[in-house]
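Quick one: co-fold with zinc ion.
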Amino acid sequence: MPRTNGTTTQRGYDAKHKAERKRLEPIVARGGIACARCGEPIVPPEPWDLGHTDDRTGWTGPEHRDCNRADGARKRNAGARARRAPVERPFTRPERAW
Ligand SMILES: [Zn+2]
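Sure, here it is.
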């Protein structure tokens, strides 16, 4: 099975993301839409992002820009921590004291 072309998939995702955002824009602009992440209302003209599920197969809905980006930053930091985490110390054989 040939691998799926990641670039094409990514382009398709971006186009759909833009279309979905455009569709939601007038709805969010009317007010009364709750942030998918914190549950607080998004009050226009507050900036918002279209949040996506962790596996990027769908959208969670409009989110405060701060909520959306804060979560991304948290994930990135967690990843960085995990990569740094267990530092394996080189095993050194104890000197033999004869
Ligand atoms: Zn929020």
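If it helps, Residues 6-30 form the longest helix (25 residues).
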